[in-house]
Task: structure prediction
Amino acid sequence: MAENLQTVQISSTTTSVSQAVVSAKKRSPPAKARTQTAREARDEKINPSTASGGIPNPTAKYLAASDVVPQLLPQPQHLLVIIDLNGTLLFRPSRKQPTKFISRPNTAPFLQYCVDTFSVVIWSSAKLENVTNMCDTILTPNLRKKVIAVWGRNKFGLSKQDFDLRVQCYKRLTTVWNDKGIAISHPEYANGRRWDQTNTVLVDDSLEKGRSEPFNLLEVPEFFGNANEQGRILPQVHDYLNYLSMHSNVSACLRDNPFKPLLPS
Ligand SMILES: [Mg+2]
Result:
């Protein structure tokens, strides 16, 4: 997988500003050959402009640091768990009613466990007002206070034009790691420890959104609102987060052994 990612063509950096603001309608959609979730295929998106950072790829440094044998720890390490909303914890049946949604089975105990055990950031590409509204519903006031940050569409570095378009968003983890408010949530911040690829997990239903740090993505099957969802996905994610916390390098661990939920046959 890493070799494939390394050969992905990096979008041109020689594009002029005037070219970058070319009508978004003329930009091509993301390649269909790449794995798309069913929702992404249905709601096709356009690529972000150069002004919005274009399409990211993992750096050579990132890939090298993930290409090591995972080491078991004597005690679990503290993780930064970044959790997506739509398709991961909930399903929004209609874009016209952005605050109406169905929670995935076991969302409440899953969030309770994550917030009590790890440092949690919620990050959705929905507009912040809708993200805030959804978080106020799925999190108790007490849990909400313990969440390190709630991020919405405003945290993707999108140009003004792209912000209002259906562009493919990319959750660059460097954006999270470089955020001072989140950095200081590391329990050993005072000793120089920081969030990085060894201790961060992105829980998301979109492989494409995790493109820049692919081995920090715990990819969950997309949730479509089935209240009787078979497979008990979130309890399996819960167990897998515990498994990852027992290793010294999350990216090495996920690269070696990606999350594969047991689904009913
Ligand atoms: Mg999603």
In short: Strands lie at 80-83, 90-91, 102-103, 119-123, 149-151, 200-204, 217-219. The radius of gyration is 18 Å. The pocket of magnesium ion is lined by residues 84, 86-88, 204-206 (CB under 6 Å). The first strand starts at residue 80 and ends at 83.
